[in-house]
């Protein structure tokens, strides 16, 4: 039975790498995939991994009908044995419904990859719809780690290493950004709640202990 599978995890846990591996293994066996993405850091129409691999993809614009794209592709003699959608958190809920229709009406497997929650730990609308519709949700096996060593489950947005909690939901960016740039850091829930990033934890550890005031 074809399935809609949602591979979810924090930033930097290997989602795009897995997407590229699924694409590689299937195309190596003569299968043809249609790859969608939106706002990949490598640029428009790219699916890229931090391991350095990149492949061409169809950039999903606002209002694009993904089901209609597949029907058009097939009716023009194109092949499609499966579908990959990376950065799926950026898709609109209607586009996730269209992916579910691709599974049900065209009989294709759809593999969607994305982060579930944003920097305020709120669901992205596209990810919410995936949680509602997916046949299966897979949490990636390679754990990203918080600076404390615990499994990272949350994404923090940072400026100069400090966590920020205000701003637009979508700001394309990366982990390990240099000073002055908006960046991201993955944290465990405890440290996300306390807004404690690696930089603020380091600063706290370096600050001199406050000495008790001796009675005069
Ligand atoms: N220099 C490196 N050596 C080995 N593995 C790396 C290196 N850089 C990144 N990685 C791996 O790549 C993962 C990020 O892969 P990527 O597919 O780009 O993540 P995602 O799409 O989930 O944000 C990291 O969690 C790490 O496992
Ligand atoms: C938490 C969060 C992330 N983003 C952006 C930052 C990146 O461009 C992508 C995630 O890509 P990855 O391949 O999973 O690392 O999402 C955002 O726009 N808003 C957020 O709150």
UniProtKB/TrEMBL annotation:
Its main location: cytoplasm. Its EC number is 2.7.1.21. ATP binds at residues 9-16, 86-89. The keyword Hydrolase does not apply. Keywords: ATP-binding, Cytoplasm, DNA synthesis, Kinase, Nucleotide-binding, Transferase. GO terms for molecular function: thymidine kinase activity. It is found in: Cytoplasm. Belongs to the thymidine kinase family. Homotetramer. This is Thymidine kinase. It comes from Streptomyces achromogenes. The gene is tdk.
């Amino acid at each position: 039975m074809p399935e809609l599978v949602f591979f979810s995890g924090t930033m930097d846990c290997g989602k795009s790498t897995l997407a590229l591996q699924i694409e590689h293994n299937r195309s190596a066996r003569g299968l043809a995939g249609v790859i969608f993405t939106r706002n990949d850091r490598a640029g428009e129409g790219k699916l890229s991994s931090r391991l350095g691999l990149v492949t061409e993809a169809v950039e999903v614009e606002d209002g694009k009908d993904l089901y209609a794209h597949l029907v058009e592709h097939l009716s023009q003699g194109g092949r499609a044995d499966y579908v990959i959608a990376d950065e799926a958190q950026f898709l609109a809920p209607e586009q996730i419904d269209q992916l579910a229709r691709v599974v049900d009406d065209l009989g294709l497997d759809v593999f969607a990859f994305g982060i579930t929650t944003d920097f305020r730990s709120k669901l992205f609308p596209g990810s919410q719809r995936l949680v509602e519709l997916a046949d299966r949700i897979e949490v990636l096996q390679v754990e990203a780690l918080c600076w404390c060593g615990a499994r990272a489950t949350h994404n923090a947005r940072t400026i100069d290493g400090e966590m920020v909690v205000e701003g637009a939901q979508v700001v394309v960016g990366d982990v390990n950004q240099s000073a002055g740039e908006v960046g991201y850091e993955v944290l465990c829930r405890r440290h996300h709640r306390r807004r404690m990033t690696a930089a603020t934890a380091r600063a706290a550890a370096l600050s001199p202990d406050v000495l008790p005031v001796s009675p005069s």
